[in-house]
Amino acid sequence: MLTVLGISVGIGAILFLVSLGSGLQHILISEIAASMLSMDIKVDSSALIKLDKDQIEKIKSINGVAEVSPVFKISSMMRVDELSGAISAILVKPPFFSMEGLKVANGVFFTGDSDNKIVVSTATLQLFNLSADNTLGKTVRFELFMPKIDEKNGNLVNSEEVETVRLEKTYEIVGIVDDSSESYIYMPMDSVENLKIPFYTQLKLTAKDQKDIPEIKTQIEIIGFVPTALSDTISDADRIFQAIQIILSVFGAVALVVSAIGMFNTMTIALLERTQEIGIMKALGASRHDIWKLFLAESVIIGFLGGAVGIILGFSGTYAVNAGVNVLAKNFGGQQVSLFYTSNSFVFFIIIFSTIVGFVTGLYPSRRASRLNPLEALRYK
């Protein structure tokens, strides 16, 4: 039983460490799976090529592009009751939220028929000393600082010169996104179509299929823009996690090797302690093959039980650590996640692997026991 426990510790360590690496990788992929087909094009206001409606139509006509969503970000003044503050206004269309993979902490995102709804960041709430409980449903007003454009050539008159546009309508706060880094709001682009936006600061697009992304990037670069695809970042992160899993597996393998040496030692000691017993069995008619099967079967059973108990220990460890981390996350206001991920095929592999380890470590003691001379074995002390 001590030998089984030793094997179990090694198997449990492998299961725990590999599950941790797979779990972290799984969290990354699941959190941004919706953005796997997304691409971004960001253009500075001083760039030679402007991201205007004509350029967007060219990009939209590229083969493989499923949907595009332009973004226009400008400075603005937001008024809440008697207070006012400078924030960034991000003008978007409703599909932007799903393409960006955003989630609301409170409320909902505005839809296509909501031209007077906005979504704010938590940093905006802090700016106006508001709480999430009394923010939803509150109405606000805006003044937008639009860039001055030369109507003849469509260029900026002055990068620092702006035109103040007071919006007549009031907007209702319907959603809050969890972001304390910057004060900004998301506003429906359709609600300010009369402002004649000269160019956009960003374009969000999605591809129909993952295989279309390289060709779309090439076509966009031909037009003159530099696209960034989240799939590139995911591929790099995936390779990093694969390396981490290999390193964690090596640490677990070291524990397993130590356990295997202990198992080999146990089988060898068992051979020495049962030498006379082997001699008696051979004297009663047991063949070499019978002795070989007896010792090898014991070794395989120890390996199998070590794997089974190791799986129990590994899963117990993952559940305990995951529960502890989630308790801390809940107390500190974080999001609860599952840090560990174990596939059924990996559990099956562990059982087979531990049984093979038992078989291999039992080969030499079994062979040695089967070749003992019965007379020498009976005299052995």
Query: Given the helix and strand composition, which structural class is it?
Result: alpha+beta
Write down the secondary-structure element order. HEHEEHEEHEEEEEHEHHHHH
Rounded to the nearest angstrom, the distance between the terminal CA atoms is 25 Å
Helix % is 40-55%
In spatial order, strands of the major sheet run 2-3-9-5-8-6
What's the structural blueprint in terms of helices and strands?
Blueprint: H1 2-31, E1 38-42, H2 53-60, E2 65-80, E3 83-92, H3 95-100, E4 104-107, E5 117-121, H4 122-127, E6 139-147, E7 162-166, E8 171-177, E9 184-188, E10 202-207, H5 213-223, E11 227-229, H6 230-273, H7 275-283, H8 288-331, H9 344-370, H10 374-379
Parallel strand pairs: 3-9, 5-8
Antiparallel strand pairs: 1-10, 1-11, 2-3, 2-6, 2-10, 4-8, 5-9, 6-7, 6-8
Helix pairs in contact: 1-6, 1-8, 6-9, 8-9
